[in-house]
Amino acid sequence: MKVHNNGAWALMVPAALVMTFVAVLPLLAVLNYSFHDIFSLDKVFWVGTDWYDMIVTTPRFWASLGRSALFSTLALGIQLPLGIAIALMLRKIGPRGAVFMLMCLAIPLVVPSNMIAGLWLALIRAEGLGGQVLSALHLTLDYKFNPLHTWALILVVDTWHWLGLVVVLAYAGLSSIQPAYYQAAAVDSASRWAVFRWIELPQISGALWIVLLLRLVDSFMIYTEVMTINAGGPNDATTFLSLELGEEIKAYSYGTAAAQAMVDFVFVLTLVWIFVKLRQTADPEMVKPQ
Amino acid sequence: MTRYGLLRLFACFVLGGFVLLPLGQAIVLSFTATLEADGVPIGTIGFHNYLNILHRPELRESIGNSVTYVLLNVAFCLIAGLPAAYGLARYSFIGDRQFLLFLLAFRVTPPVVLSLPIFILFARAGLVNSPVGIALVHCVFNLPIAIWILESFIAAIPRSFDEMAFLDGHSRTGFFVRFLIPAIAPGIAVAAFFCFIFSWVEVVFARILTVTSGKPITQAITALFTFRTDWGLVMAMTVFSVIPGVFMIFLARHQIARGFVIRT
């Protein structure tokens, strides 16, 4: 049982100070810039909501938003079921094999993110191992000019990068299930699906919800990999929200970039809020103070 | 072996192949000469790419820079995170859940959203090109993680543990250093592990905050891409950049999967 004591805020001071300096102040600055036209840091003009009006009335913005949403849906649709399935399988192969596989799966998580795409490009270039296999099979991967191929490559690379996170946390959730649950299910001769739906899924949801949230937001704002692979091309087919924003910053249009950043931030915040609300309705225990 | 057993073995092989293929290719390339230089013909196998890293001062320095800011970041996150985690684990107070939600919101804010003002702010504060600047800015996503992990470990220790120490006349600081930190050592290790990894692989902030010097390993690799890219050297550098992470995974292999529940 926790003691109610508002003096505990004093303990939050160091963390709150750091967060204020590196997160709150910059965010307020972005908000401020977004209402201004900025030629240079001392030539700044108030433009009100002009940038926002411009953004929401451009078809380009909505197209990028649609592409980002589609990418997130595909990435989560592939990585979550696949990750859970792998975790279920690893539970069956014995702890030593499982730990070894988990270690392998975790390695992509520690590769610097600008090298993720680089590793894959090295693999699939003509002299690379993957490139040779593809040409032996008479397949061509034209990721520079064929939008379908670019999308496929980005999805494969993103899955390679993040699958480990889903598997590791799903596996942890599965390991914490008491054997008594499985015994009870066996007594009731429950089907495999029923065991998954009513025992395993509820038990791993706690560990999975944070993966889901992180993956949702990260895939929604994916930048580095896409930039390295084809810089948003061909023909803007992979220009996601973050690439749009990156373009604005590179072009030094600070005002529009800031407005765009605020719009993106609001999207991300809305996703988080929906998520927390869904989680609280799904698991009312979480709402009660402990 | 049963039919299912064979199937699982096959699935593990496919999965292992998928995960290790790009890395395997990178390791092979890192030992292969891919550009004719210093009289080493293309295709020669050997350590010359790794020796080249040592011969190029900008590559050597970048490794030092990365290690410096990552370690600083871990220190910042633990020092600022520990009191906050203790407060959240032991007390309820007005705005505690809002504070957690606030942390979550910034944990998931894409770096590219904050990159522009952070650059301007840090330039004014003289924190550009310095490892301290990068270490600070990485707190945006690492401090919340550190607080969550430490909180869950402190919450697992009964309150009576604290009260005993206070009854024995220890001050709060004394209690933190002599009792709490040893008791949650595994939690500190897990928090440090995640902060280390996330800071090590981050590129957006690390790039915008290093204009002329203090470049991290990730930037040094990007700079190697030219019209005649020496893939062997790039891959040697990449393999080098993955080693600390792989080493930490190995150390933490039995712990990673535990104690990572996030409360809001």
Can you characterise this structure?
The complex is a heterodimer of chains A (290) and B (264). Chain A has 290 residues and is mainly α. Chain A has a single domain (60-286), classed as MetI-like (MetI-like fold, Orthogonal Bundle), CATH 1.10.3720.10. Helix content of chain A is 72%, strand content 4%. In chain A, strands 2-3 form a two-stranded antiparallel ribbon. The longest helix of chain A has 32 residues, at 59-90. Chain A is globular. Residues 286-290 of chain A have low confidence and may be disordered. Chain B has 264 residues and is mostly helical. Chain B is 72% helix and 1% strand. Chain B contains 13 helices and 1 strand; from the N terminus they run H-H-H-E-H-H-H-H-H-H-H-H-H-H. Chain B has helices at 3-30, 48-55, 57-90, 96-107, 111-124, 131-137, 139-155, 159-167, 172-183, 185-201, 204-208, 217-223, 231-251; one strand at 91-92. The radius of gyration of chain B is 23 Å and the shape is globular. The termini of chain B are far apart. Chains A and B meet through strand 1, helix 1, helix 4, helix 5 and helix 7 of A and helix 1, helix 3, strand 1, helix 4 and helix 5 of B. Strand 1 of chain A pairs parallel with strand 1 of chain B.
What is this structure, in a nutshell?
With about 290 residues, chain A is mostly helical. In chain A, about 70% of the residues lie in helices and about 5% in strands. The termini of chain A are close together.
What's the number of helices of chain B? 13
- Give the oligomer, counting copies of the same chain as homo and different chains as hetero: heterodimer
CATH architecture of chain B: Orthogonal Bundle
Return the domain count of chain B. Answer: 1
Distance between the termini of chain B: 46 Å
* Largest beta-sheet characterization of chain A: 2 strands, antiparallel
Structural class assignment of chain A: mainly alpha
Instruction: Output the radius of gyration of chain B.
Output: 23 Å
Largest sheet data of chain B: none
Biggest chain contact: A-B, 93 and 93 residues
Shape of chain B: globular
The CATH homologous superfamily name of chain A equals MetI-like
Question: What percentage of the residues of chain B does DSSP assign to strands (E)?
Answer: under 5%
Overall mean pLDDT of chain B stands at 84
